C-alpha cells in the first residue's frame, strides 16, 4: 500500500518544506511509517498529475500525507476524478485515496472544519491528521460536489466538469476569489479576501437558481426558531425542485466543512446538524427579502452593503449570521419577527442560470479556482458521497 508525502512549497506563507523536513517526516519516521517518496509541486495544477504518475504502477489503497491548502487538494481530486490510469492500476479496482492533512495553506477550510481551533490551542495543532494516520485511526469519506458548466445548447460544446471538496460559490464569494488572486503577492494572508470584498460589496447578481432535491427529500430550509430543517418556503407539493429568483448578493454551497477560514463559520449547521450523504449546505442572501429594498438602484445597493457586512461579520461570531433577521427599517438584529437575512438550505444540488447581461453573475468559484459560465450557459452542481471502498477519505 503506497504511502507518499506531497507538499506545495508556495502555499500559505511558504513554509511547507520546512514543516515537512522539521516535523512531519521525523514524526512519521518515529511512528515507524516509511514514506516511499516525497513529492513537491513545481507549478500550478501540478499536484494531481504528480500523484497520478506516481501511483500509476503501484497497486492498493494509497495514502498521501498532504501539506497544502484547500486548492492543492482540489487539484488532486479534480485530476484523479477525470484522468484514467494506464499502468498496472488500470486493471485494479477504483482508486481509494486516504489523506493525512497538514494545513500549510492560507485558509485551510477542510482542516479547520475537521479540527476546529480551540483556546488554548491543541499542542502540535497542525499534526493531528498525521497522528491519526500513524495511530491507524478512522477515516471519513469526503463528499464531493460535481459542477457541470454548459454553454448555450446552440454552441454544441462539451460541458466542463469541476469537482469541489469544500466550496462552490457564485455572486460575492466568487467575485472575491476572482479579485483576491491578483492580491496574493501583496497580501499573502487572509487579509487579501477582505481587500477583495471591499471592492465588490455593492454588487448584486442576476440569474435564476433552482435548488435540487437529495435522494430522499426536496430542499430543506433551516428555521432558526425551531432550530430544525423544514420544508422550503418556496417548495410546491408537485415539484421536488425549488425556484429562487434574484437578485442575489451572496451564494455559497459547501461540502465537508462548516467554515471557509478557521473563524469564518459560514455553514455552521454542517457541524451542529450533521449532513446526510449526498447533500450540501447552501447560504444565500437576496436583497429583496429586506423590507426597505424593492428595486435595484445604486443607492439601495450602497445601503444594502451594511446588511451584507453585518451577515458576514456575524459568520465570524461562531456562525451567528444564521439568526439575524430584518428589523422594520431594514437594519439587521436578533429581535423581532422580520424575515431572516440568510436563507440556509440543505439540498442535493443546484442549478444557476446567470442573466446574459450580468458579467459577474457568470463567475463560479470551485474551491478557490475561478471558472466562467459562458453566455447562454448554466452551471449545475450536485453532491455525491462515495459508498464502499473507492473515493477520497481523510484521517481524523
Ligand atoms: N511550485 C509552485 N509554484 C507556483 N504555484 C504553485 C506551485 N505548486 C502549487 N502551486 C499553486 O499554489 C496555489 C495555492 O495552493 P493552495 O490553495 O493549496 O494554498 P493556499 O491558497 O495558500 O491555501 P487555501 O486554499 O487553504 O486558502 C494552487 O493554486 C497551486 O496550483
TrEMBL record:
GO CC annotation, single: cytoplasm
Superkingdom of origin: Eukaryota
Record-level Gene Ontology MF annotations: lipid kinase activity
Record-linked InterPro entries: ATP-NAD_kinase_N, Diacylglycerol_kinase_cat_dom, Lipid_Phosphate_FormReg, NAD/diacylglycerol_kinase_sf
Gene Ontology process terms (BP): sphingosine biosynthetic process
Annotated DAGKc domain residues: 1-121
Pfam families linked: DAGK_cat
Database matches in PANTHER family: DAGKC DOMAIN-CONTAINING PROTEIN, SPHINGOSINE KINASE
Protein name according to UniProt: DAGKc domain-containing protein
Amino acid at each position: 500500500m503506497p504511502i507518499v508525502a506531497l507538499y506545495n512549497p508556495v502555499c500559505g506563507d511558504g513554509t511547507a518544506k520546512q514543516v515537512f523536513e522539521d516535523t512531519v517526516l521525523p514524526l512519521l519516521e518515529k511512528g515507524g511509517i516509511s514514506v516511499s517518496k516525497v513529492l513537491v509541486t513545481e507549478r500550478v495544477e501540478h499536484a494531481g498529475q504528480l500523484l497520478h504518475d506516481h501511483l500509476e504502477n503501484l497497486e492498493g489503497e494509497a495514502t498521501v500525507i498532504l501539506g497544502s491548502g484547500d486548492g492543492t487538494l482540489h487539484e488532486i481530486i479534480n485530476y484523479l476524478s477525470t484522468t484514467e490510469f494506464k499502468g498496472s492500476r488500470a486493471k485494479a479496482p477504483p482508486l481509494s485515496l486516504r489523506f493525512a492533512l497538514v494545513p500549510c495553506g492560507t485558509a485551510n477550510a477542510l482542516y479547520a472544519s475537521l479540527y476546529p481551533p480551540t483556546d488554548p490551542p491543541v499542542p502540535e495543532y497542525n499534526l493531528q491528521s498525521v497522528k491519526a494516520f500513524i495511530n491507524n485511526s478512522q477515516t471519513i469519506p469526503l463528499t464531493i460536489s460535481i459542477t457541470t458548466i454548459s454553454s448555450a445548447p446552440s454552441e454544441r460544446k462539451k460541458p466542463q466538469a469541476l469537482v469541489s471538496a469544500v466550496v462552490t460559490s457564485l455572486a460575492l464569494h466568487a467575485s472575491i476569489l476572482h479579485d483576491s488572486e491578483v492580491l496574493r503577492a501583496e497580501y499573502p494572508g487572509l487579509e487579501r479576501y477582505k481587500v477583495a470584498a471591499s471592492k465588490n460589496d455593492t454588487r448584486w447578481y442576476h440569474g435564476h437558481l433552482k435548488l435540487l432535491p437529495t435522494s430522499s427529500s426536496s430542499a430543506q430550509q433551516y428555521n432558526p426558531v425551531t432550530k430544525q430543517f423544514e420544508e422550503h418556503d418556496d417548495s410546491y407539493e408537485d415539484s421536488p425542485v425549488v425556484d429562487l429568483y434574484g437578485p442575489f448578493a451572496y451564494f455559497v454551497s459547501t461540502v465537508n466543512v462548516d467554515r471557509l477560514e478557521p473563524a469564518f463559520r459560514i455553514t455552521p449547521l454542517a457541524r451542529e446538524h450533521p449532513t446526510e450523504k449526498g447533500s450540501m449546505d447552501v447560504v444565500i442572501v437576496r436583497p429583496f427579502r429586506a423590507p426597505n429594498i424593492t428595486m435595484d438602484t445604486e443607492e439601495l445597493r450602497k445601503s444594502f452593503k451594511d446588511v451584507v457586512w453585518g451577515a458576514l461579520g456575524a459568520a465570524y461570531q461562531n456562525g451567528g449570521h444564521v439568526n439575524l433577521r430584518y428589523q422594520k427599517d431594514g437594519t439587521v438584529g436578533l429581535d423581532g419577527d422580520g424575515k431572516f437575512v440568510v436563507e440556509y438550505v440543505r439540498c442535493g444540488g443546484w442549478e444557476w442560470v446567470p442573466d446574459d447581461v450580468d458579467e459577474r453573475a457568470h463567475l463560479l468559484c470551485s474551491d478557490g479556482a475561478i471558472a466562467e459560465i459562458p453566455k447562454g450557459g448554466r452551471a449545475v452542481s450536485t453532491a455525491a458521497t462515495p459508498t464502499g471502498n473507492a473515493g477520497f477519505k481523510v484521517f481524523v
